[in-house]
C-alpha cells in the first residue's frame, strides 16, 4: 500500500518499497495520484531511497504539466484493508474432515501457490520508456553548433539512447539544436539529463523539453 502521509522516515521508506517494481503510483502512465503523493512528500527523498528518488525526480521534471495529468482510476487510501481473497471451493472447511484430508488439502493449496508463483516469475518485466525531444539553445550565432551537438551526444547514461537531430532557425541568424532521445524511466532522470547538458557552458545557454511521449 502506498502511504499518503509522510510523518517520519518509515513512511518514506514504505513509499520507496512500493515503487520498487512500478514507475507510477497507479498504472503505467502518470496520474493525479502521482501529484497527490508528490505534493505530500514535499521534498526529494534521501539518495539511499533510490526508487522513491527516481520517481520524485521524474514527476518533478513535468513542471506545470503535472496539472494536466489524468485523474487516477484508483482512489488513494491511507489505511483501507486489502480485500479478502475469495476462497476456492476446494478449500472450504469441513468440520468433520479427518486430519489426513486437512493435510491433503493443505498440500494441494501449497502446490497451487507454488505453480502460480512460478508462472508469475516467468512473465517478462515491462520496461517503461519515454521518447523526448530536447531544444538545446546556444549563446549566439557564433556558437559552433556541430561541436555543441558532439558535446551533447557525448553524454552516456544507462538507459539513454540518442536519436535524430536537426538545427532549427530561431531568428537573427541563430539556430537551436533539436535532438531526440529515448530513455528508460527507471534509469534516467530528465532533470539530471538537462542539467548535464547545460554544464557545457561554452556552448549551451538553455535546454527545454519540446515534446515528451510515453512509449
UniProtKB/TrEMBL annotation:
Family: Belongs to the EF-1-beta/EF-1-delta family.
Cited InterPro entries: eEF-1beta-like_sf, EF-1_beta_acid_region_euk, EF1B_bsu/dsu, EF1B_bsu/dsu_GNE, Glutathione-S-Trfase_C_sf, Transl_elong_EF1B/ribsomal_bS6, Transl_elong_EF1B_B/D_CS
Name of one Pfam family that matches: EF-1_beta_acid
Species name: Cloeon dipterum
Domain Translation elongation factor EF1B beta/delta subunit guanine nucleotide exchange: 129-215
Keywords for this protein: Elongation factor, Protein biosynthesis
Sequence ranges assigned to domain Elongation factor 1 beta central acidic region eukaryote in this UniProt record: 95-120
A GO term for molecular function: guanyl-nucleotide exchange factor activity
Name the UniProt record assigns to this protein: Translation elongation factor EF1B beta/delta subunit guanine nucleotide exchange domain-containing protein
Record-level GO cellular component terms: cytosol; eukaryotic translation elongation factor 1 complex
Amino acid at each position: 500500500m502506498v502511504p499518503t502521509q509522510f510523518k517520519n522516515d518509515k513512511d518514506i521508506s514504505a513509499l520507496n518499497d512500493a515503487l520498487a517494481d512500478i514507475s507510477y503510483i497507479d498504472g503505467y502512465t502518470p496520474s493525479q495520484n502521482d501529484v497527490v503523493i508528490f505534493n505530500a512528500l514535499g521534498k526529494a527523498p534521501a539518495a539511499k531511497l533510490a526508487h522513491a528518488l527516481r520517481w520524485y525526480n521524474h514527476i518533478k521534471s513535468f513542471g506545470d504539466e503535472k496539472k494536466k495529468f489524468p485523474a487516477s482510476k484508483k482512489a488513494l487510501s491511507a489505511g483501507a484493508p486489502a480485500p479478502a481473497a475469495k476462497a476456492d471451493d476446494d478449500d472450504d472447511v469441513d468440520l468433520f474432515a479427518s486430519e489426513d484430508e486437512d493435510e491433503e488439502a493443505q498440500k494441494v493449496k501449497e502446490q497451487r501457490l507454488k505453480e502460480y508463483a512460478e508462472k508469475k516469475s516467468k512473465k517478462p518485466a515491462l520496461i517503461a520508456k519515454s521518447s523526448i525531444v530536447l531544444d538545446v539553445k546556444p549563446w549566439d550565432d557564433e556558437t559552433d553548433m556541430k561541436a555543441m551537438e558532439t558535446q551533447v551526444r557525448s553524454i552516456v547514461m544507462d538507459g539513454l539512447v540518442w536519436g535524430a537531430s536537426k538545427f532549427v532557425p530561431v531568428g537573427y541568424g541563430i539556430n537551436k539544436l533539436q535532438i531526440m532521445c529515448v530513455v528508460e524511466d527507471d534509469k534516467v532522470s530528465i532533470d539530471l539529463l538537462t542539467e548535464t547538458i547545460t554544464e557545457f557552458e561554452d556552448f549551451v545557454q538553455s535546454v527545454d523539453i519540446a515534446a515528451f511521449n510515453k512509449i
